[in-house]
Design goal:
The chain is mostly helical. It folds into three domains: 24-73, no CATH class; 90-212, no CATH class; 213-424, MetI-like fold, CATH 1.10.3720.10. It is 71% helix and 0% strand. It has helices at 21-51, 56-60, 75-80, 90-113, 125-147, 155-177, 183-211, 216-247, 253-263, 268-282, 289-292, 299-309, 314-322, 327-338, 340-355, 359-364, 373-383, 388-419. The longest helix has 32 residues, at 216-247.
Length: 424
């Protein structure tokens, strides 16, 4: 039975009511209380910052003074001129340069080698793939040749480092081979990436030497380089694995994913000794490789990005397939821009994790020219027990970088954390 349409009735617009004086006072009281609580919680940091301008007697005096009697600004440049001893070793500078060079090589190779194959043009796969594999071997040999003379003839370290760099080149080849590439472009991209990586490695090696040995500038350089390279590399590889788990279908996908989640239940103390033994057997003790290569992926990063990518609409992926895009092109041009909040969240977490890490650098890096800030400040505090102002200056510089990073990217960080539990 048909029903008669009811005439449309517009709802009256209700004007917002003005807040009463009691409500205004209540809000002001709440905001004032929150500000006071925030200042109380932030007081230790404020006192530590003001302590960088005090004398040691003022810092240890009781009751403590809030502001310094005389502002000793010279405490900050004094820290930069402090040297605990130790000259910049060629092998240490070479390992830091190699870490930056390998990262640059991998990125340039992927971005320059990606293209859509044109019918009847370019080198055929049957010829391009063997040539690419041969170039990967050349890349490995170049890395071994670069680092070998600086290591005093350590054959194990030279060979293991060359193999690790060669595996990076092979991973890049495998990724591009799934993208229907122009193989001539892939080969040229690998040669260009090899040149760029070599230049970057030499530049960062010289920067490490110029930063000195047991100096604060060198420790800051080590920490910044290792944190950036490790965080960016982990974001790249975790996002690739997350794309495979979230968007692709292959045999054993769920089993592998569940096994990866189970690995998160293993305490870090259980794998501490076996990991150290493997690193020592490879000859990577006191080398930047010991903190970079073993940390290119972790289970938490893959899980978080997988949960985020499951919420990406499949219609976007299907439209890209219709336009002829490959899986890697969809990953680079469709998925990564949409996953920016989650990627920035993972980058911030991993950057802060490496910046604040103490145990792993303490185990693997054992000379002053390779220390990171946390290890160096611990040794510095033992050597300069009577100079609390210098110790506080170092602690402030160590804390400012992650705080600044969080301040500028807090919006994306909060947004990414909210997406971490979203399921498609």
């Amino acid at each position: 039975m048909a029903t008669l349409a009811q005439p449309f009735k517009a709802h009256p617009v209700v004007a917002p009511t003005a807040a009463t004086p009691a409500q205004v006072l209540g809000r002001v009281a709440i905001y004032a209380a929150l500000i006071v609580i925030g200042l109380i919680l932030f007081t230790p940091f404020i006192l530590a910052f003001l302590g960088t301008f005090k004398t040691d007697a003022e810092i240890t005096a009781w009751p403590p003074s809030f502001f310094p009697t005389v502002w000793h600004v010279e405490n900050w440049p004094r820290l930069w001129n402090t040297d605990v001893g130790g000259l910049p070793r060629p092998e240490g500078a070479a390992s830091l340069g190699l870490a930056a060079g390998v990262f640059s090589f991998f990125w340039v190779f992927l971005l320059a080698g990606l293209s859509s194959e044109e019918e009847g043009k370019g080198i055929k796969r049957s010829l391009g793939l063997p040539l690419g594999l041969g170039l990967a071997v050349v890349v490995a040999a170049a890395a071994a040749w670069y680092i070998g003379p600086r290591l005093g003839g350590s054959t194990v370290l030279t060979v293991s480092t060359g193999i690790a760099v060669g595996l990076f080149a092979l991973i890049g080849m495998g990724i591009l081979s799934m993208s229907r590439p122009d193989w001539g472009r892939v080969l040229l991209a690998m040669l260009a990436a090899l040149v760029v990586g070599a230049v970057v490695a030499l530049v960062f090696e010289q920067l490490a030497v110029a930063a000195g040995g047991g100096r604060f500038l060198r420790w800051l350089f080590n920490t910044a380089l290792l944190s950036v390279v490790r965080a960016l590399t982990l974001v790249v590889f975790c996002s690739m694995a997350a794309y495979a788990f979230a968007r692709l279908r292959f045999p054993g996908r769920d089993l592998i994913f569940n096994f990866m989640l189970l690995s998160m239940m293993i305490p870090g103390a259980v794998t501490l000794v076996p990991t150290y033994v493997v690193i020592a057997k490879l000859g990577w003790i006191n080398q930047a490789q010991s903190l970079i290569f073993p940390s290119i992926v972790n289970a938490f990063g893959i899980f978080m990005l997988t949960q985020f990518l499951k919420a990406v609409p499949r219609e976007l992926e299907e439209a890209a397939f219709i336009d002829g895009a490959s899986h890697f092109q969809i990953y680079k041009d469709v998925v990564l821009p949409l996953a920016r909040p989650a990627l920035l969240t993972l980058f911030i977490l991993q950057f802060q994790g490496m910046w604040n890490d103490f145990l792993a650098p303490l185990l693997y890096l054992n000379t002053p020219d390779m220390w990171v800030l946390n290890v160096a400040l611990s040794v510095f505090q033992q050597n300069y027990k009577a100079q609390w102002n210098l110790t506080l200056v170092g602690a402030m510089i160590n804390a400012v970088v992650p705080l600044t990073l969080f301040f500028f990217f807090s919006k994306y960080y909060i947004e990414g954390v909210s997406y971490a539990g979203v399921k498609g």
